[in-house]
Design a protein that fits this description.
Distance between the termini: 61 Å
Structural class: alpha+beta
Catalytic activity: ATP + protein L-histidine = ADP + protein N-phospho-L-histidine
Number of domains: 3
Number of strands: 11
Helix content: 40-55%
Strand order of the largest sheet: 6-8-9-11-10
Pfam families: HAMP, HATPase_c, HisKA
Radius of gyration: 53 Å
GO molecular function: ATP binding
Number of helices: 10
Subcellular location: Membrane
Keywords: ATP-binding, Kinase, Membrane, Nucleotide-binding, Phosphoprotein, Transferase, Transmembrane, Transmembrane helix, Two-component regulatory system
Length: about 475
């Protein structure tokens, strides 16, 4: 069954808090029990020391144990005097035990009051022995269980205090205190669990809300609503995720707009020469225009224009997909450039354009590139300058390099390009309005193809204003060391 992110967050926070609260509760109970047991042991040790001291003082006064052995009440009184706590009421079993004949001590295991005891008082766990370890107050059958403490007087051992094993005595007030503390810890733990559940609910809501919003926006984006944006409400990872989502949505929106422009531009570029061809063919068919060499030449020009457009589209599609073949070898790019200039020289001369080649380096290193694609790049750029430079103008081509890169700049004279339009020149079907002339036959794809060829050679291409008054295209290629 699918669970929402809020439920998962709630369960995660609640489980974590439950583990922490349970751990704290167990640790506090363990610490309290340990401290209480240490307190009881310390109190018992203090009572044993007091009892040994009282018995030593009693022996010093009487000179023997005979008076004590004949007076059980005195023995019980000495036992009770070992406890220094004030306002302690005598146990209820004193009178009954004191009235019993003989010196059997302690009383029966089930207790003098007939009830089993969880905590056996110190008075019921001690025996008194002579120096020769004969019993004064005790039970012979339990001698083996005793741990003996010597009772000294005048530097000599005059007797022994025997202690039976068992847990120390706990007073009623102490037990009640422990019970109250245990109950308080339990209530505190329960309160912490309730508060944790409330806090987990709040955190799950606060953290789940932006995630749910992002999920909903992603669904809308998948349906084509590219204009959707998320509010950025924080500077944490969720806020960064919202910013990244907005950037992605903006990129998709721009891509969709570019796709629509691309389809519209292709339709427009194809429709125009087809409309001209149709009009001329209908004129020939209707006899309005005679069939002549001039008419055939006009039709051929329109066909060639369609052919150039489709070829440019094909080349651009191949370069976009990375399907253009590149056979890279070590070549001299300057030789390729000179060959292209020689091939286009008649067209430059027909338009009275002066072309200058400036070689800034005599020792030009080899370039790892495809000579045919490099020639396609140079010819596209040179034909762009040829088509859009006014007659009688000038084209300057400079080649230079440093240790890391080769720089080729093709600059021409007027007309120029506005500064704000320089970054758009490499977009598909983009042509500057002021110099956009359909007589040139261009569809605005040449520079886009050039950009892809340069990128395939790990280079960079940019457009800038030329010092000659026109446009300058700068190409940078990395050199092989």
């Amino acid at each position: 069954m699918h669970k929402s992110i809020r439920i998962k967050l709630f369960l995660s926070f609640l489980l974590t808090t439950l583990l922490v609260v349970a751990g704290m509760y167990l640790f506090m109970r363990w610490s309290l029990d340990r401290g209480f047991n240490e307190l009881v042991e310390a109190r018992q040790h203090e009572r044993i020391e007091n009892l040994v001291e009282n018995l030593s003082d009693y022996y010093a006064e009487t000179g023997s144990w005979a008076p004590l052995a004949a007076n059980k009440r005195q023995w019980i009184r000495l036992l009770l005097q070992s406890d220094n706590r004030r306002h302690r009421y005598p146990p209820v079993w004193i009178n009954k035990v004191a009235a019993e004949p003989g010196n059997l001590w302690p009383p029966a295991p089930e207790g003098a009051d007939g009830r089993k005891r969880r905590f056996i008082p110190l008075e019921l766990r001690v025996m008194l022995l002579n120096a020769d370890r004969s019993l004064l107050f005790g039970r012979a059958e339990r001698l083996a269980e005793l741990s003996l403490r010597p009772i000294a007087h005048g530097g000599q051992v005059v007797g022994y205090l025997g202690l039976l094993p068992g847990r120390g005595d706990n007073q009623v007030g102490d037990l009640r205190f422990m019970q109250r503390q245990a109950q308080a810890f339990a209530w505190i733990a329960l309160l912490m669990v309730v508060l944790s559940a409330l806090l987990a609910t709040l955190l799950a809501y606060l953290l789940g809300r932006p995630i749910k919003r992002i999920a909903g926006a992603a669904q809308q984006l998948g349906k084509g609503a590219y204009a959707i944006r998320l509010p950025v409400e924080s500077g944490d990872e969720l806020g960064q995720l919202a910013r990244d989502f907005n950037e992605m949505a903006a990129a998709l929106e721009q891509s969709e707009q570019a796709r629509r422009r691309w389809v519209a531009d292709i339709s427009h570029e194809l429709r125009t020469p087809l409309a001209v061809l149709r009009g001329e063919l209908e004129a020939l068919q209707d006899g309005i225009r005679p069939m002549s060499a001039e008419a055939v030449d006009s039709l051929l020009a329109d066909v060639m224009r369609l052919n150039r457009l489709t070829e440019d589209l094909y080349q651009l599609a191949l370069s976009d997909q990375g399907a253009l073949t590149y056979r890279k070898t070590m070549i001299n790019p300057l030789q390729v450039l000179k060959a292209d200039l020689t091939a286009l020289q008649p067209e430059f001369a027909a338009k009275r354009l002066r072309v200058e080649l400036i070689e800034g380096s005599q020792n030009l290193p080899g370039l790892y590139a495809d000579a045919d694609r490099l020639s396609q790049l140079f010819r596209n750029l040179l034909k762009n300058s040829l088509n859009y430079t006014d007659a009688g103008g000038r084209i300057v081509i400079s080649v230079s390099n440093d240790a890391a890169k080769l720089v080729i700049e093709i600059a021409d004279s007027s007309p120029g390009v506005a500064e704000q339009e320089l970054g758009k020149l490499f977009a598909r079907f983009y042509r500057v309005e002021s110099s956009r002339n359909r007589n040139h036959g261009g569809a605005g794809l040449g520079l886009a193809i050039c950009s892809n060829i340069v990128a395939a050679h790990n280079g960079a291409i940019r457009a800038q204003t030329s010092e000659l008054g026109g446009l300058a295209i700068v190409i940078e290629f990395p050199l092989v060391k």
